[in-house]
Write the structure tokens for this entry.
Amino acid sequence: MRPARIAHDVRDSIEARYIVGSEPSAVLPSERKLAAEFGVARATVRSALTMLRDQQQIRTQAGGPPVVVDPHLSKAPQLSSFTQDAVARGWHPTSKVLEAEREVADVSTARNLGISPGSAVIRIRRLRVADQSPMAVEEVWLPDELFPGILSHDLSGSLYELFETIYRTAVYRHDRRISATNLDQPLADLLEVRAGAAALFATQVGFDRSGRRLEFGRSIYRGDRFDFTTITFAAARRREHSNAAQKRGLA
């Protein structure tokens, strides 16, 4: 049997025995132990682990054993950026700027940003990537008067970091709406999936602490790599929390 085929078989065996059904952060045996278990050379095990790492099923680290990771990037209820979410997973986030230009706000964009139609806005469209795997296509509109000169900065990193370090402002709240969609061919090509694949479509408006609108965005997330989590309470539970807050003088 060819070495490449053996490595694929070992990869499948490791996945079935140690990854499927395991919790994120579960630790796999060392290369030496896996080689002994499957009766193959350590180089073969290393190739199998590399394939699993490239599929983002495990994370390898120098001097340590492989660790199982969740292939989904979860958005928790608290406000966080794509960069922060990816880093929290131990992934390396990057962005490819697809388009970045100054344009005139149409009626919809103006309404979402709380500005007059025809006002100048900055539109930035980016492909968001984690560990070299495309995860989302994000398009955002910013009021030009709040972010003058932003097009001269490096837009491949975190926009929120630019907001804070250069413009001394920050997104404090998101109003977000999420729905299901299917990818057309151009988006599927960008995200490296088949046309018609399931995806999540999100629109959001970001506000600062004073309620001023800083951004309006539309994002397409790969359905097989992204999920959103929410926390909900029964009505009675909400009243209990409200009453407790009032007693503490917090409401």
About this structure: The domain at 82-222 is CATH 3.40.1410.10 (Chorismate lyase).
